Amino acid sequence: MNRRSQARRPHGKRVAVLGAGSWGTTFAKILADGGADVVVWARRPELAREIQEAKRNSDYLAGVNLPLNLRATSRLDLALAGAEQVYVSVPSQALREHLKIAAPHLRASPTVVSLMKGVEKSTGLRMSEVMADVLRVDASQIAVISGPNLALEIAKEQPTAAVVSSTSLETAQSVASVARNRYFHSFVNTDVIGTEFGGVLKNLIAVAIGIVDGAGYGENTKASIITRGLVEMTDFAVAFGAHPETLSGLAGLGDLIATCQSPLSRNNTAGRLLGQGYHLSDVVNQMQQTTEGLASVGPILELARAKGVEMPIIEQVRQVLAGTLAPKDIAPHLTTDDEPQGERTKDGQAQGGSAVRRALQRAFDQLRDGGRGARRDRP
């Protein structure tokens, strides 16, 4: 899309994006390039001015030109004025406070969309649940977006796809029709639980991959952890009511692959620093943006224990974070059980073969059919 076409008057829905970090700004670009009338809210006035006037975000997306029709403000009331859809991209642990401040400025019955991948530490609630709790809106007005979405690659307009999920298929389709353009394609499903937990859990596995990478282990170790990590993700999400197919789609396997293999992943980078011997406090100080995986380990393990789900990989990550397990000792614990066990997930979830084999087959089917083979992710 050339600069002249970007300058055309927006013709689509009036939408707001709360949060001007790398993902919030990238998603504002996605929406603007798709024709929406977008205003992004930045907490810092100087960042809002740079986006508004220079069409740049040098703090988080250096070298990326933003659409000329993308507007920005540091005033929350102006960002939300008249917005039919509100996309939220703030640190998960700060979501509740941000929503309390934003609530008085929302129009009646807005569609609220979570771009975040975390769980609230104090409550264990998913982001959509926090939204419903604070805003007192029906679940049908809330959507979540997840998938293999590394911000910088998308900001550079490298083609990718994501899943828009809502308990209301109509809401999911409405959001997907706005959140798409020539380089970003949105599928839809109604499995909010699986879509959200997929985005949360893959961050934790990516931290584990970073740890073993930093400790000097090779591709066999990482492949083993990714594979068994997908089993843990599926067991956990299904225990909370998710569809197993969701975890083998874009919000599960797709996001897991992207996050585990890319140096652009903050969770992978944080894990690598831990594997190299840095203390957790030093890692947190070095990361310029929030690393959701580090904050989610504790709440996820508490939820897992409540459902009787075993998550040995995540437990070993917790021990590394706590300093009770050396990074170099993590791989044997993650890939070896005390007694030989089957590869299937719990309760027969992987009947007819392993969860991983089914996941790979589903991924191949999606690639072959351009997404049409997905039973629950619909274009």
From TrEMBL:
Chief location category: cytoplasm
Active site: K202 (proton acceptor)
Keyword terms: Cytoplasm, Lipid biosynthesis, Lipid metabolism, NAD, NADP, Nucleotide-binding, Oxidoreductase, Phospholipid biosynthesis, Phospholipid metabolism
Domain Glycerol-3-phosphate dehydrogenase NAD-dependent C-terminal: 191-330
Known EC number: 1.1.1.94
InterPro entries attached to this UniProt entry: 6-PGluconate_DH-like_C_sf, 6PGD_dom2, G3P_DH_NAD-dep, G3P_DH_NAD-dep_C, G3P_DH_NAD-dep_N, NAD(P)-bd_dom_sf
Gene Ontology MF: a single term: glycerol-3-phosphate dehydrogenase [NAD(P)+] activity
Claim: Glycoprotein is one of the keywords in the record: no
Residue ranges of every copy of the Glycerol-3-phosphate dehydrogenase NAD-dependent N-terminal domain listed in the record: 15-171
Enzyme type, top EC level: oxidoreductase
HAMAP family linked: NAD_Glyc3P_dehydrog
Name of this chain's protein: Glycerol-3-phosphate dehydrogenase [NAD(P)+]
Source organism of the structure: Agromyces bauzanensis
